[in-house]
Amino acid sequence: MSKIVDTNQAWDFFEKLEDSYFNLREVHGVMLPNIDAPILLARSWADAMEAKQQAEQLTHTQAEYIEHLEELFAEGLSPVQFCRRLNGVNSTKISSYLQSSNWLYDDNTNGSHAQWRVRSAARDKYLTENLRR
């Protein structure tokens, strides 16, 4: 298109276009290799394969971690049962906090051990409850 206009500026633009087309160029932040240099092309291919393998390894590691986290959650777990699955979490403090936040109440007020139940507002929106008596 620039050849149609016969000016020095048009020819300068055409030469720059031609030079940039046949030289190294950057596409989406990645330098494309010069196909006339087989050693550079091989290195670029090896770098790309190494990056692909690292990405696949990272994806595999993250998938395992996500699967581990998903195993912590199960339908019908009480907050205390959930806390017991986590290492180092004090389930008594969590239960006290949830009681002060009006999420739990003690269904066994006369007994020595609390029988925590989920209040309806929290149960309907956040927690499920399976009764085991």
Main attributes?
5 helices, two-stranded antiparallel sheet
Set out the fold topology:
Layout: H1 8-22, E1 25-27, E2 30-32, H2 38-72, H3 79-85, H4 91-100, E3 104-106, E4 116-118, H5 120-125
Antiparallel strand pairs: 1-2, 3-4
> What class would the helix/strand composition place it in?
mainly alpha
Q: Into which percent range does the helicity of residues fall?
A: 40-55%
Q: Characterize the overall form.
A: elongated
Q: Calculate the terminal CA-CA distance, rounded to whole Å.
A: 83 Å
What is the N-to-C order of secondary-structure elements (H for helix, E for strand)? HEEHHHEEH
- Characterize the largest beta sheet: strand count, sense, and whether it forms a barrel: 2 strands, antiparallel
Number of helices: 5
Task: Report on the architecture of this protein.
The structure is a single chain. The protein folds into two domains: 8-72, no CATH class; 79-125, no CATH class. Helices cover 55% and strands 9% of the residues. It has five helices and four strands, in the order αββαααββα. The strands form two sheets. It has a two-stranded antiparallel ribbon. The longest helix is centred in the middle third of the chain and has 35 residues, at 38-72. The mean pLDDT is 78.
